[in-house]
Structure formats: structure tokens, C-alpha cells
Design a protein that fits this description.
By secondary structure, the protein is of the alpha+beta class. It contains 5 helices and 6 strands, in the order H-H-H-H-E-E-H-E-E-E-E. The chain has a domain of 66 residues: Cystine-knot cytokines (Cystine Knot Cytokines, subunit B). The strands form 3 sheets. Strands 1-2 form a two-stranded antiparallel ribbon. A two-stranded antiparallel ribbon has the order 3-6. A hairpin with a 5-residue loop joins strand 4 and strand 5. The longest helix is centred in the middle third of the chain and has 20 residues. It is flat, with a radius of gyration of 38 Å. One of its GO terms (biological process) is glial cell-derived neurotrophic factor receptor signaling pathway.
Length: 200
């Protein structure tokens, strides 16, 4: 009935010798120690290790090297960017942040850029304050937008290019912008920066 891990010492032949041995020993217990069970967390850990070791055995040596180099590269990128953990498992909080970022309401924003970066064909190092409209218009959906979307899904409207949702666009524009180009020629551009944004 007893398993082989427990070891019992043979009993002494006489009770006097037993009493002598127990009195001569220190206060430490002479009973054998019971075997300890490993915690369940360790059992799960060992099962995970055996699972992943069997999984890694199916890879070739070149594939394992490629996997390790990719992990090392991601770790160094995370440390250089100031993060303190491997970006292997993105947290659900970051997913919610991205979802909130996609549904920001329509608003006016600004950016300082050079005239050459505006893409209007002018060569100039002068900088201007470019104001633009950014955000979504989910709250501004009207019956028109819903009906238009339904007509498009039922193939009632096929060829025309129509937008079935409101768009964040400028409602008014800022003052005209004047600048000198690289050849000292003077130009004025109108309706360049947004002044007010709305869903249209």
C-alpha cells in the first residue's frame, strides 16, 4: 500500500534502546518526511514546457534560428523605444485606444509645414501653418445617408460615385497665404487652410 518513495528505518529490538536513541537525539523529529506534492502552477508550467518543446522539435534548425533572431530584433526595438516588455502580445487596452482614436469627432487641427511640402508646385523654404479637418462623423448620419447606403447595397445606384456617409470637411477657410518662392517671386494662395470644420 505504501509507495516506494517512503523509507522506514527498522524498529529497534528493545524498548530501552528505542528510548535511548530518542533521548540522545536532538529535538528534530525522527519520523520520516512525507513526500511533497508539486504545486499545480508548476505542473501547468511543466506541461507547457513539454508542449512547446515538442512543438519546437518539428522545426528545422534554420527555422529556429530565424525565430530567435526575430525575437531578439523585436526585443531590441522595444528596449530602444522605451518599452519594458516584449511587444509580442498586444494588450486589449491598446486595441480599445485604437478604436477610440478611429472614432474621434470632427475637429480642426494644425501643422507647421514648408510651402514646398504643400504639393502645389511651389519651391519655397518658407513655413506656413496648415489647418485641416480630421475625425469621424458617425453622430452626424442622417436619414439621407442611411437611405443612400441602402440603395447602393440593393444595386439601385450603380454607376454614380456617391458617398453614403457624412465627411469631415472645412466649412470655412482661413485668410489667404502669401509667400516668396526660391526665386524671390511673390505668390498668394487662397482657401489653403481650414478655419472651421463640420460634417458635410
Amino acid at each position: 500500500m505504501l509507495n516506494g518513495s517512503r523509507k522506514y528505518s527498522s524498529l529497534p529490538s528493545s524498548p530501552s534502546s528505542s528510548w535511548a536513541s530518542s533521548s540522545s537525539s536532538s529535538s528534530s523529529s525522527s519520523l520520516p518526511a512525507a513526500p511533497r506534492r508539486s504545486p499545480r502552477a508548476l505542473q501547468r508550467h511543466s506541461s507547457l514546457l513539454s508542449h512547446y518543446s515538442s512543438l519546437l522539435e518539428s522545426y528545422t534548425e534554420g527555422e529556429i534560428r530565424q525565430l530567435i533572431s526575430a525575437l531578439v530584433e523585436r526585443y531590441s526595438q522595444a528596449m530602444n523605444s522605451g518599452a519594458h516588455e516584449l511587444p509580442l502580445f498586444p494588450r486589449s487596452g491598446s486595441r480599445r485606444k485604437r478604436a477610440r482614436a478611429r472614432h474621434k469627432p470632427c475637429a480642426l487641427k494644425e501643422l507647421e509645414v514648408s510651402v514646398s511640402e504643400l504639393g502645389l508646385g511651389y519651391e519655397s523654404d518658407e513655413t506656413v501653418l496648415f489647418r485641416y479637418c480630421s475625425g469621424t462623423c458617425e453622430a452626424a448620419v442622417r436619414s439621407y445617408d442611411l437611405s443612400l447606403k441602402s440603395m447602393r447595397s440593393k444595386k439601385k445606384i450603380k454607376k454614380e460615385k456617391v458617398r453614403a456617409r457624412p465627411c469631415c470637411r472645412p466649412l470655412a477657410y482661413d485668410d489667404d497665404v502669401s509667400f516668396l518662392d526660391a526665386y524671390n517671386r511673390y505668390y498668394t494662395v487662397n482657401e489653403l487652410s481650414a478655419k472651421e470644420c463640420g460634417c458635410v
